[in-house]
Amino acid sequence: MLVEPRTRLALGALSAACFVSVTSENLPVALLPQLASGLDAPESAIGLLMTGYALVVAVSVVPLVTVTGRWDRRTTALVTIALIVVSNVVLAVAPNYGVAVVARVVAAVGHGVFWSVVASMAARLLGPGRGGRATAVVFAGNSLAFLFGLSVSSWLGTTLGWRLAVLAVAAAAAVTALVIRVTVAPMPAHAPARGPRIVADRALLPVNVTTLLVVTGHFAAFTYITALITRYVHVTGPATSAVLFAHGTAGLLGLVLIGRHIDHHPRPTALVTTAGLAVCMLALLVSPSPLVAGTAIVVWAGPAAGIGVVLQAAVLRVAKDRPDLASAVYIVAFQVGIALGAALGGWSLDAGLLPVAVLIATAGGLTSALVVWRAKAFASPA
Known about the structure:
This protein has 16 helices and no strands. It is mainly alpha-helical. The chain has one domain (5-378): MFS general substrate transporter like domains (Growth Hormone, Chain: A, Up-down Bundle). Helix 7 (131-159) runs antiparallel to helix 12 (238-261) and helix 13 (266-286) packs antiparallel against helix 14. The protein starts with a helix and ends in an 8-residue tail after the last helix. The mean pLDDT is 85. It is found in: Cell membrane.
């Protein structure tokens, strides 16, 4: 099926928005030591900027998606991206840790709303039966964020200072908003579904359980990936940016492969994503070789890139008539997983037990794979 040029541009604009959102969200990961030094806070406190961000999203997303349920979807996306611009400008001039927390809250308020609409917007652009492919296309921005966004942010933070790195993200968000305004046509909202019915939907429960397990595991390790690189690969400084770049490249390749198969083979694809996380973490944990450890960290990006695509596609498959609010409930599970994982990883780092974070990631991958294996939500379409 051919895709019209305007549709391609619109999908590219949404993918760019995903790029900006993920880069902004994960700046504490890329700039961990610089933020700690600049804000006079321990690295574990910088990790809590991820935890707090996720908790704000988890608490606010369902009521905010309900409130904005009748908004045009393009307008909703533009408002949430504008919040990213404001947030990063405030963070760039933050004199202390408290102001940094406030800045993160500003972006977090819009974060869940953005992610509750972007996949369904892409699916509407490509048409019925292509929700997984549409999600993979726009979620390419996620992988590009890890490929370029985080590695370039890390490099900027090391060479020019973290404040300029954060301002660069704000500028990119502003440009992205302009591109969406020009390329994406107005998109009226679906009739909103009732929140309680969505929350209690048994068909969505396995998807949300899988989300909580695999995301908790992944972010227990990923939030402190720079510390993992230092400990297991024995590199620091600019070399860390190179490892992050390789990690992002692997993620992009993994996303391409997952996007090709997710609509027709959802369960095998989901198993590759969940079990693949566990395999990479085990390799990192047991290998004494920095080369093998570095390879495990790079390959880890492949299954990690599929987490959002696999889970969001399952939501769209199960909740075809109410995608936005169903996505909001799923995002709650996702953000709780980020918050819990970042907190567990931070505890492990503070206690000098960083391998425990890797063990948590292994357990998250294995247990989520078991749910995927059994749940009908991941069954192949008839």
